[in-house]
Write a structure and sequence with these properties.
This protein has about 270 residues and is an all-alpha fold. It has ten helices and no strands. Helix 2 runs antiparallel to helix 9, helix 4 packs antiparallel against helix 8 and helix 8 packs antiparallel against helix 9.
């Protein structure tokens, strides 16, 4: 388990406190360290140059951080759209199976769709939320088996009339789309920011925060407060990146609401006789 995954899986308040503690501690520590070796009057002589360089560094880092936040937010929205589209395809498949003229032929496919939907809700989503993948592209082997069984049962349908043939093609289109969207979900669920971006983002934060130690201020406590406030702002943005980095993990995660709706509407969560 990577450190970024561990951070998003712990309680949000703890993650925020750890991130803030790290950056605020670093900023205050650098200010105190520099003051131990360089007097503030010497630093004050270079405030103009330091201010110009700090403004340049701040703008560059701010643009990079904004870019990362936008990318992460778009990825989160894409994952949410994919999850909804997948559930919509599952519901379309259920509806088309119900409308098939020969109800005897669709009993087994409907049962397989029910088993698959429950497995996604009860096994696959929890596995993604806990990042417990059973193989490279499979969060739940049991769910994968149930999906393949659904495919097999649908292919076993043999249309006898033109109406049945037309509906059968719709059913095939539904399950194709369902499989495609599910595969997208499983891929995006494991996507992490490239290591080079994490490195640039963390080092950029350290450089930007540490630069405040090069300013000469007679009031040491005031400079510590300024550095701390900057560190808190940077920490909050990085916390947002950590929280949204894995769309299906953590407290701010995408839930299987579409499958819950399908199971509820189809009555698959009810006990026999109710």
């Amino acid at each position: 388990m990577s450190f970024s995954v561990w951070l998003v899986m712990i309680p949000q308040w703890l993650c925020l406190m750890l991130v803030m503690l790290f950056f605020v501690g670093f900023g205050v520590g650098v200010v105190m360290l520099v003051r131990q070796f360089v007097h503030h009057t010497i630093l004050k002589q270079h405030n103009d140059i330091a201010g110009f360089v700090f403004a340049t560094v701040g703008v560059i880092y701010g643009v990079m951080l904004a870019f990362v936040v936008i990318v992460i937010w778009e990825q989160f929205n894409d994952a949410n759209s994919i999850a909804r589209s997948e559930a919509t395809q599952a519901y379309s498949l259920y509806r088309d199976l119900l409308n098939y003229p020969d109800q005897e032929l669709i009993k087994q496919p409907l049962a397989s769709l029910a088993a698959f939907s429950k497995a996604v809700l009860e096994l696959e989503y929890p596995a993604m939320r806990n990042m417990k993948w059973e193989s490279e592209h499979v969060a739940s082997a049991e769910t994968e088996k149930k999906f393949l069984k659904l495919w097999k049962d649908i292919k076993a349908i043999s249309p006898k009339t033109m109406q049945e043939d037309a509906l059968f093609h719709e059913i095939l289109a539904d399950i194709n789309s369902l499989g495609r969207e599910r595969e997208k979900r499983l891929i995006i669920a494991r996507d992490d920011l490239p290591g080079v971006i994490w490195t640039a983002m963390i080092l950029g934060a350290l450089v930007t925060i540490g630069f405040t130690a090069l300013f000469g201020n007679e009031n040491l406590k005031g400079q510590i407060v300024i550095t701390g406030l900057l560190s808190i702002v940077v920490s909050l943005v990085i916390f947002v990146v950590i929280t949204l980095n894995f769309p299906f993990v953590g407290e701010v995660s995408i839930a299987a609401e579409g499958y819950e709706y399908l199971i509820d509407q189809a009555g698959w969560n009810k006990k026999p006789g109710i």
